[in-house]
Specification:
There is one protein chain. This protein is 44% helix and 18% strand. A six-stranded antiparallel β-sheet has the order 1-5-6-2-3-4. A three-stranded antiparallel β-sheet has the order 7-8-9. A hairpin with a 2-residue loop joins strand 2 and strand 3. Helix 1 packs antiparallel against helix 2 and helix 3 crosses helix 4. The longest helix has 28 residues.
Length: 257
């Protein structure tokens, strides 16, 4: 199992790899008038520019995804991210283009001409990264009854409950940054873990991810409120849990409501 920090690093590195590969593609095709330059020169230029753009994109993503649910609004996320990245990246491209191909900074009057090409490339790379990074709807299932077994196999995740919650009934698991908040019939507490890893270990309990930040035990659901294309689950302890539009179809098909 990887740690939350390792998962964050993997996401970061994936974005840089995508950016570098796009840089190789742009260099190979001689994109945006760079075909006349030697291949080595334009390869260094495009890979550097795309990696710098990837670094800025990663920082922008950490801010944007705090305010926009990427699972519910992927295209809004793409649009906001593209707008946030394009301006600063255009300045980087303006400086790099002059230094690589003219050995001096271009006049500021040349900067507006770069917005269009930078916008196109940023939109393409951001779209790939947003859709690769979306969490997948996942359900967990109760262990099937077996005549040969006197008790069902243990649910691995329950061993992670803090001592004060041992033996409690788990209602929901909520992601909070790199931590998980465990909601039970005896209260709640935090542990350090990724939600995706927790869901793997929750197999054996009937439940599902309802949102990129939530897993809910089906037995804990006491009601559902639907409106404006959204749904909210009310749990046994009175907790309200959001259901992303992207997850709602899976839950409806599984007769959660």
């Amino acid at each position: 199992m990887t740690s939350p920090a390792a998962d964050s690093r993997r996401t970061f590195l994936r974005g840089l790899v995508v950016a570098a590969l796009v840089g190789v593609f742009l260099a190979t095709t001689g994109a945006f008038g760079s075909a006349n330059a030697p291949y080595g020169q334009r390869l260094a230029y495009w890979v550097l520019v795309m990696i710098l753009g990837g670094l800025w994109g990663h920082m922008s993503s950490r801010v944007v995804t705090r305010f926009i649910d990427v699972d519910d609004r992927p295209w809004v996320t793409v649009a906001v991210m593209t707008a946030a990245i394009t301006g600063p990246l255009s300045v980087i491209v303006w400086a790099a283009t002059g230094l690589f191909f003219a050995q001096k900074l271009y006049p500021l009057a040349a900067l507006p001409q770069l917005f269009g090409p930078v916008l196109v490339v940023t939109l393409a790379v951001t779209t790939v990264n947003v859709f690769l990074g979306r969490a997948q709807p996942v359900q967990t299932h109760a262990a099937p009854a077996s005549p040969a077994a006197s008790t069902p196999p243990p649910v691995r995740f329950l061993d992670r409950l803090p001592m004060k919650l041992r033996g409690a009934t788990l209602h929901a698991v909520q992601a909070e940054d790199h931590y998980l908040r465990l909601h039970t019939d005896r209260g709640s507490d935090l542990i350090l873990m990724r939600l995706s890893d927790a869901v793997d270990e929750l197999e054996g309990l009937e439940g599902a991810r309802t949102h990129r930040s939530w897993w809910v035990a089906r037995a804990a659901v006491r009601g559902v409120d639907r409106g404006d294309g959204r749904a909210t689950l009310t749990l046994e302890n009175g907790l309200s849990v959001p259901v992303s539009r992207r997850y709602a179809r899976t839950l409806r098909e599984a007769d959660w409501w």
